[in-house]
Amino acid sequence: MTTLDRDALFIGGTWAAPAADAVLEVVSPHSEEVVARVPEGSTADIDAAVAAARRAFDEGPWPRMSPAERIDVVQNLSGLYAAKLDEMATIISTEMGSPISFSSLAQAPAPWMQIEAFLGIAREFPWEERRPGVLGADVVVRHEPVGVVAAIPPWNVPQFTILSKVVPALLAGCTVVVKPAPETPLDGYLLAELLVEAGVPEGVVSIVAGGREVGEHLVRHPGVDKVAFTGSTAAGRKIGAICGEQLKRVSLELGGKSAAIILDDADEAAAIEGLKFLGVMNSGQACVAQTRVLVSRERHDAFAASLAAAIGSMKVGDPLDPATEIGPMVAQRQQERVTSYIRIGQEEGAQLLAGGEGRPDGLDRGWYVRPTVFAGVDNKMRIAQEEIFGPVLSVIAYDDVADAIRIANDSEYGLAGTVWTADADAGLEVARGVRTGTYGINTYTMDFAAPFGGFKASGLGREFGPEGLAQYTEAKSVYLSAPPM
Ligand code: NAD
């Protein structure tokens, strides 16, 4: 028994015994030891959670409360969450290996900032507005809750991708069943405790961790009105197809293969410093990682050498050590996957400038890989087209700015991108040409006031901003009778 062990599931707002006795063992990616055992949710647990959510939506107080009353409860959650940031960051680093330096920014404080941003957006949101119609009478346009939401997050940024769904769903008056990934069931328990303490009524939220099959059961469940998914493009296609058949509302946040375009006037040191974070953040396990680095043919060799020196010397090690810059991969299969791409890059003829196959020096256990930089990469190579999800960067040469934009767009993905330049106007012009849902000029900082999401195979719909809140509502138009003629 460790202090992180649990024997119950959070179903319908209370702690319930699991229907089956399967157990999820949470294994530390650093020590390869079991750090916690929790119940693995089964399809019967999902049925119970959806039934509770359905009841709470169809008969309970939550959807019938005013937006201001719901805002008060979410405000309580914000205060409670703010007091638990360190604990949340440590739990996530323990379960999935994120360096604590990253967790202390993005795994806990960023989700809390989402709550605050959504509270502000909900206060201004046009929940019910009266518009002048064209037929002589006004129309009342209401934004009503979409219903029971299935929220399915991945393991790489678990709280970030749970709160991006649960918070707008709650503010809109929905009820929610969350199915965390089997690698990261622990952070959901802390969130569940905070939801109860904040005063979220019975039935409104359930959190049941489990695998793919359980996830698919939730997606197909007739009691679910909307699916909000973050994960791989392969799973997203499958979930989108099921929702299409059932005409369920669906939003999909999927993979990426983002390009950082380094213009010739860029400050090289600043760009490399930026890529040390943006290229390999969360040990490269980030959907918005800038993994294709586009440099003019003249500057390619020098820039690639400097980048390789910077990435190759990053500190790899124990995720709980504050000095660690790159931690282990989440699981052995992910370590093997990343290593196989390092091999593929060499077979494809890319030039290996840093890293390579094998373990980093001094780390004889844990699912570590060596931070790797390839140069002379052709954008047609698999390492430039496929999402590796590890600390592996590809430097690609371009002929001119138009060619850089063409290469950036030569991807099935369209999630994020950056341009590095001394000329902000030139940067904005590049941003206009790249087909991605988000873009950064000399930076990439997600702002929760603005919509986030993907073009092309990176997804469907948007999270954050008023656009993200609107995804949890249905618009209803009520036509008022025209004044007598
Ligand atoms: P994954 O698709 O394997 O799993 C994601 C979640 O979906 C997990 O909870 C999993 O159990 C569940 N799942 C898998 N198949 C399912 C199915 N058929 N039906 C229902 N549920 C199913 O992805 P992953 O490996 O956990 O996460 C990494 C992926 O997530 C990467 O591709 C990454 O780019 C993407 N991601 C995207 C964003 C974004 O905002 N666009 C953010 C983070 C991660």
UniProtKB/TrEMBL annotation:
GO terms for molecular function: aldehyde dehydrogenase (NAD+) activity. It catalyses: an aldehyde + NAD(+) + H2O = a carboxylate + NADH + 2 H(+). Pfam families: Aldedh (PF00171). InterPro entries: Ald_DH/histidinol_DH, Ald_DH_C, Ald_DH_CS_CYS, Ald_DH_CS_GLU, Ald_DH_N, Aldehyde_DH_dom. Keywords: Oxidoreductase. Its EC number is 1.2.1.3. It is an enzyme of class 1 (oxidoreductase). Residues 16-478 form the Aldehyde dehydrogenase domain. Belongs to the aldehyde dehydrogenase family. This is aldehyde dehydrogenase (NAD(+)). It comes from Nocardioides simplex (Arthrobacter simplex). The lineage of its organism: Bacteria, Bacillati, Actinomycetota, Actinomycetes, Propionibacteriales.
